[in-house]
């Protein structure tokens, strides 16, 4: 028959192992991915967020192409209107680390927070 000290020791070992696994997984971004999935799920399930987003977008009137071409650089226009991509390591935000919320240049819709930026060591 086990006494309470054996049970406590077993629990402490289990907690320690879980922490070691968590530290190892966090190094590979697994926790970040799970956190983002949970946050995205919570955002999708929030009825107020969806309705307020719909209200904002209902008010948004996309500027004519001529106006967009005037207000954007050629690259910005191609990226925002034709799903083009910037050449690798060339975008204005490649070395930009200011804190804040990044927004779509055309709609002004929030895209992501600077705390969510991901640094990929492999390029």
TrEMBL record:
GO terms for biological process: protein repair; response to oxidative stress. Keywords: Membrane, Oxidoreductase, Transmembrane, Transmembrane helix. It comes from Didymodactylos carnosus. The lineage of its organism: Eukaryota, Metazoa, Spiralia, Gnathifera, Rotifera. GO terms for cellular component: cytoplasm. The chain crosses the membrane at residues 7-25. This is MsrB domain-containing protein. Belongs to the MsrB Met sulfoxide reductase family. GO terms for molecular function: peptide-methionine (R)-S-oxide reductase activity. InterPro entries: Met_Sox_Rdtase_MsrB (IPR028427), Met_Sox_Rdtase_MsrB_dom (IPR002579), Mss4-like_sf (IPR011057). Pfam families: SelR. Residues 65-123 form the MsrB domain. It comes from the Eukaryota.
């Amino acid at each position: 028959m086990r006494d309470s000290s054996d049970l406590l020791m077993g629990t402490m070992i289990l907690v320690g192992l879980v922490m070691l696994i968590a530290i190892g997984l966090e190094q590979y971004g697994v926790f970040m991915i799970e956190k983002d999935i949970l946050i995205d799920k919570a955002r999708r399930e929030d009825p107020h967020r969806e309705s307020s987003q719909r209200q904002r977008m209902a008010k948004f009137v996309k500027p004519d192409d001529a106006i967009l071409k005037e207000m954007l650089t050629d690259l910005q226009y191609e990226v925002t209107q034709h799903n083009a991509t910037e050449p690798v390591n060339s975008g204005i935000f490649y070395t930009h680390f200011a804190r804040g919320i990044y927004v779509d240049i055309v709609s002004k819709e929030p895209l992501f927070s600077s705390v969510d930026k991901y640094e990929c060591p492999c390029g």
